[in-house]
Specification:
Order of helices and strands: EEEHEHHEHEEHEEEEEEE
Strand content: 25-35%
Distance between the termini: 75 Å
Oligomer: single chain
Number of strands: 14
Structural class: alpha+beta
């Protein structure tokens, strides 16, 4: 039988072990559980050396998916992000499109997951916890998994999904860059008569404009006009072999535009066609350079 408590002459203690630690005052061999009360972990040393850390790097968890902490407080959280420890580094493409697909929601946590009614019997505490579970803001993990699976965590042992919200920040940064490029393109592109469609001069018929600039190496804008009477409309992009490579459903009516991002296509010559209510409005050619 293993010794239950071992006390060395130095005063060091070992629990469920026949030895003590040469470096630590208390050594526990096995799992530790504290029940029926609050647990306080007091660290002395203030601003110097107190630390809590796992024995091995990149291991261990605080809480589990089926038994998560209600709150965590800290002056700072640091995600390790040393370039020297990373490989296969690559760009985030189409970030703006990904962000536009995300849907933020308000929600309430179901009562059975907010607190245990068998344990929480005090009416005031129940009322406080019931209020706290309401009016949350976030995403739905299953929906995000269809768009950005890289930020979603799934625990198959509990069948619970979670989101690492911090991982969305790099996607937001790249989306802002794409949006900024679109704004700069619009600011630096003069609206000529050929690029701007005047519906009053065209008898309120669907019209497709030439992309500007053309040729282009980064982004290009396609102006078009759709009467309010048009029910369905889409812009199709084809390569010179006739294969469709892009489709943009158009929901706006009258003067609107489509942005073509050059980094999503290979350099070459393309055709783009406007289809309104099942009929071809026009087809034009555009050229993407390196």
């Amino acid at each position: 039988m293993k010794a239950q408590i071992t006390v060395a002459t130095t005063g060091k203690i070992g629990l469920h072990t026949t030895t003590t630690s040469p470096t630590d005052d208390v050594l526990i061999n096995g799992q530790t559980k504290i029940t029926n009360g609050q647990c306080y972990l007091t660290l002395r040393g203030y601003y110097t050396t107190p630390q809590i850390y796992p024995y091995a790097d990149n291991s261990g968890s605080v809480g589990i998916s089926g038994n998560a902490f209600a709150n965590m407080y800290s002056w700072a959280f640091t995600d390790l992000s040393d370039k020297r420890k990373k490989e296969n580094i690559r760009d985030i493409n189409g970030a703006l499109d990904l962000i536009l697909k995300l849907k933020g929601v308000k929600y309430d946590i179901k009562k059975e997951f907010a607190y245990d009614e068998k344990v929480i019997t005090d009416p005031e505490t129940r009322a406080r916890l019931d209020e706290k579970r309401k009016n949350k803001i976030g995403f739905l993990a299953q929906d995000v998994n269809e768009i950005l699976p890289e930020v979603v965590v799934y625990d198959d042992s509990t069948d619970i999904y979670g989101i690492e919200y911090g991982k969305i920040v790099p996607v937001l940064v790249e989306a802002i860059k794409e949006l900024s490029a679109e704004i700069e393109l619009l600011k630096n592109t003069p609206l000529t008569k050929s690029a701007t469609i005047q519906p009053e001069q065209l008898g309120q018929v669907a019209t497709l404009g030439q992309n500007v600039p053309n040729p282009f190496s980064s982004n290009t804008q396609i102006q078009l006009f759709l009467p309010k009477t048009v029910l369905q409309a889409a812009l199709y992009v084809y390569n010179m072999q006739g294969a469709q490579i892009k489709k943009f459903n158009i929901r706006d009516r009258e003067n609107t535009s489509i942005l073509i991002e050059g980094n999503t296509m290979e350099p070459g010559m393309y055709l783009y066609t406007l289809i309104a209510d099942g009929k071809e409005v026009d087809t034009k050619k555009m050229i993407l350079t390196k």
